[in-house]
Design goal:
Radius of gyration: 24 Å
Strand content: under 5%
Shape: globular
Low-confidence stretches: 344-349
Number of domains: 2
Distance between the termini: 71 Å
Helix content: 40-55%
Length: about 350
């Protein structure tokens, strides 16, 4: 029996979501699940025969929260390997309807506890008009919300079945139009359900912990422009240089005219995922290099010149403290004036 809800029940669930939304989005790991690759994958996966194995592997890594990461859990690596192995057989049967595809993978994946979500994700990528992105956490969240409104199926639990995916899709598409966030309602609801269904994993986080989504999530040296900063004077093209450019662009967007900061201020405006750099090791190394003098970088003026030296030494070490910048969060820095356009040029006069 498929899930049904009255309009009153839909509104009640939307209200419950809205009440909890901010608290749970504060825990969402944005850099593990950037939205940018999804549109391209949906285009490619519509024809499974055209999907390169590397793209399939990347998409599945994304699903498991390991985008750009090498530390994928063993159970997840096994699922990815099993899907890659069975993919040629799968695409030999293009006549599979969605339920047949689901059964195919259910028979191929011995670890269905972890395999279910990967298969649901593949169904979503192949048929985004028919299925939302479901997984155990999101479906658990759905049933928890049904309990809060005393729904007729409040005692139902996740069975990792095809029906779960169908009902989740119906549930999701009934609720997101009721939220007051316009075009952002779909993404906010998806992220909320993921976090809410996985809330037990965040119990040990500090009470004041807040994750932050990068405002600049893609970057190209060929297309960036600025009316306030000399981006053309940035001499290198490494991640540290990209982060400096992103920081300047964020200042231009905020339009505050500020040039004096603390190192902590700078870090606050460059969350993991900025410019699409989602690998924590690469990102944190770039932050260390950002404040150093490697390759004659001169992006900042320091009140204490020992700070630049300390960052340079740290960046040059083979075994470095990737959170080194936290030691100097209160140190004052200012943008080197050479990268700031003069008022005359800024005004176009």
């Amino acid at each position: 029996m498929s899930l049904t809800m009255s309009e009153k029940e839909k509104r009640s669930i939307a209200a419950a979501v809205q009440e909890k939304l901010e608290a749970h989005l504060n825990h969402f790991p944005f850099a593990r699940y950037p939205m940018e690759p999804l549109n391209e994958w949906q285009r490619i996966f519509c024809d499974p025969k055209t999907v390169p194995s590397d793209t399939l592997k990347k998409a599945l890594s994304w699903h498991f929260g390991s985008w750009q990461r090498k530390d994928i859990a063993l159970s997840h690596r096994k699922i990815i390997a099993a899907i890659l192995k069975a993919w040629p057989e799968y695409i030999d049967h293009p006549s599979h309807n969605a339920e047949q595809a689901f059964v195919f993978w259910e028979q191929k994946l011995s670890d269905w506890h972890h395999g279910f979500g990967a298969v649901a994700f593949l169904l979503h990528l192949q048929r985004p008009d028919q299925y939302e992105f479901a997984d155990r956490h999101r479906i658990d969240a759905m049933f928890e919300l049904l309990k809060t409104i005393e729904h007729a199926e409040k005692e139902r639990i996740t069975t990792l079945s095809y029906l779960d995916i169908q009902d989740y899709t119906s549930f999701f598409r009934s609720i997101f139009p009721k939220l007051p966030h316009g075009n952002e309602s779909r993404v906010k609801l998806d992220r909320f359900l993921k976090s809410y269904g996985n809330r037990h994993a965040y119990k040990l986080l500090p009470a004041d912990y807040k994750s932050k989504e990068a405002t600049i999530r893609s970057f190209s040296w060929e297309t960036i422009t600025s009316k306030r900063f000399h981006l053309d004077l940035i001499p290198h093209r490494s991640n540290a240089d990209i982060l400096f450019a992103c920081f300047l662009l964020s200042q231009e967007t905020s339009d505050q005219g500020q040039t004096d900061f603390t190192i902590g201020d700078v870090i606050e405006q460059l969350p993991l995922g900025t410019a699409g750099i989602c690998n924590p090791a690469s990102f944190n190394y770039a932050l260390v290099s950002l404040f150093g003098g490697q390759k004659q970088r001169d992006y900042w003026l320091f009140q204490n010149q020992e700070v630049r030296r300390a960052f340079t030494e740290q960046a040059n070490k083979s075994t470095r403290d990737m959170r080194f910048y936290l030691r100097y969060a209160d140190e004052p820095v200012s943008i080197n004036p050479k990268y700031v356009l003069t008022e005359e040029k800024h005004d176009g006069s």
